[in-house]
User: What shape does this take?
Amino acid sequence: MTTDMTNPLASRGTGTPVRTVRRRAIRVSDGELVSIDAEAGLAVVVRPRMAGVDLAGWLRDHREQVERLLHQRGAVRLRGFGVATAADFEAVSHSLGPGLLDYVYGSTPRSREKGSVYTSTEYPPDQVIPQHNEMAYSRRWPMKLWFFCKIAAAAGGETPLADSRRVLARLDPALRRRFAERGVRYVRNYGGGLDLSWQQVFETDRREQVESVCRTLRISYEWLPDDRLRTWQVCQAVANHPVTGEAAWFNQAHLFHPSNLPADVRESLLATAGQDDLPRNALYGDGAPIEDAALEEIRAAFAAETVAEPWDEGEVLLIDNVLMSHGRRPYDGPRKVLVAMTDPNPDPDGDAEREDAQ
Assistant: This one.
């Protein structure tokens, strides 16, 4: 097994494209179109009652119902609807929102598949991607995540889920309060071959474009010698859902902190790069170090709440990004999962709400 020194998480999906099957949409009474199973697992499962149901059309026509399920459970699995291609998936992911978001200021390697549809994180198949909420290291994140399993792995490769509300409830109240009051400072150093380059992260090779994004997202930055860049930003540790008002654990301190790395890799990086030049780091918002014991408690809370279900090929998974975290299990054989992001959180340039963590 090989370990990438800079993987704060840990996907690479390849394989033969699935043959496209075009079906004519069937219009019958709404009650006959789908079945909804709220007892199948952590996520609600929706299936068509007959072949040819137009998933994108059904989602548009039943947006309020889907949103209600999403806010109650945090995730909805859409199985058996005949979604087969990136174009099919793009149409589905447009059904509940005004448009798709680009993966600018991302933290992991991905490739554009079509428009703003991306591959899932391209880390080796033997690596685990720990639970996380997408872009919780930023003040601007997508409220909805769409996943599409184009090719299911022969074994493993699940996208586990964990309810962020329940993760928060498992944490010691003093820990919750400390993080909620102080926030999390994310420090990233780009370049030098240890992590993603700033050109990859900001999807540009123009410094002025990087600076514009940083100003918009209120990210502090500093250009370093040898075409390197350092950014830092203080973000929320706990977020209140803008619709339900519920508090959820919402940060990536446990991923960015060097304790997420194998001990030998952490020691090597600290010896060669030093604390200030680590590819990425997480501190309390005031710059004080986060205790390893606190991060161990956070990881244990995620582990206790994580549920993994195997993918069905052609399945679409819709996640409320504040209420539900996701990850990835190791896998064997080809696997290809695509991702789309929609609905930026309200007031992205302002400070995220913080819970009093009582």
Summary: The CA atoms of residues 11 and 121 lie 5 Å apart. Residues 1-29, 348-358 have pLDDT under 50 and may be disordered.
